[in-house]
Write a structure and sequence with these properties.
By secondary structure, the chain is of the alpha+beta class. The chain is 41% helix and 31% strand. The chain has a single domain, classed as Alpha-D-Glucose-1,6-Bisphosphate, Chain A, domain 4 (2-Layer Sandwich), CATH 3.30.530.20. An eight-stranded antiparallel sheet has the order 1-2-8-7-6-5-4-3. Strand 6 and strand 7 form a beta hairpin. Helix 5 crosses helix 7, helix 5 packs across helix 8 and helix 7 packs antiparallel against helix 8. The radius of gyration is 17 Å and the shape is globular.
Length: 216
């Protein structure tokens, strides 16, 4: 099993670059969160980690369904959706359906000097009140945490311990990581034209959302 004790929150948060954009789907305004990280893995290995039904549970969640184009997939206890496009080993696009909401995720891989760069683009129609409350960190920090898990798996070739990883998120080191990531998402929102005070306040609420211990 992979151990979270090796995670340096400052260094790990700094591995990701984050961007926020405005978009549109069929005339409806959307918000787009873009996360990029370079892994010390070759492109075929990273592609396999992202698309293999046997490997996805080792760092993310068990998945069922049909992962071919036109098929529907379901992550255990999480989102499901439709596989819209797959161009192995460069990119794929899926719908991301959860809680009655549909959004869109595109993942692209490209060679880098020291490995492979992953770019994840998550586009959603967002309720304005929800955006004011949490900003891009609501979805962005979730992807940050998932991509940390991917990095641990790629580095060690081991399975991640989901219970240990959840406990790490609520630990002082995990909270520091979430705060750094959320702050960077707020900065990305500000760079896209958001009001600075509102973006930073939304970032603080995102930190509380991810790091508050659930009641027993």
């Amino acid at each position: 099993m992979t151990s979270t004790s090796t995670i340096d929150p400052v260094a790990t948060a700094g591995l990701m670059t984050r961007e926020v954009r405005d978009g549109s789907r069929d005339g409806t305004p959307t918000k787009i969160a873009v996360a990029r990280r370079t892994y010390s893995a070759d492109q075929d290995d990273l592609w396999n980690a992202l698309t293999s039904a046997e490997r996805l549970p080792r760092w993310f969640l068990p998945v069922s369904g049909d992962l071919a184009v036109g098929g529907r997939y379901q992550f255990e206890g999480q989102a499901g959706g439709l596989v819209e496009r797959c161009d192995a080993p460069e990119s794929f696009a899926v719908t991301w359906e959860f809680g009655g909401q549909v959004s869109w995720v595109q993942v692209s891989l490209s060679p880098a000097d020291d490995g492979t760069t992953l770019e994840l683009v998550h586009e959603a129609v967002v309720d304005p009140d929800f955006w004011t409350q949490y900003g891009p960190g609501a979805v962005g920090v979730g992807w940050d945490l998932s991509l940390v898990g991917l990095g641990l798996h790629l580095a060690t070739r081991s399975d991640n311990d989901a219970t240990e990883f959840e406990s790490w998120t609520l630990s002082p080191v995990g909270v520091e990581f979430v705060r750094l990531a959320s702050t960077d998402w707020a900065d990305a929102a500000i760079a896209s034209g958001e009001d600075a005070d509102r973006a930073r306040a939304a970032g603080e609420r995102t930190v509380a959302f991810y790091t508050t211990q659930p009641e027993a």
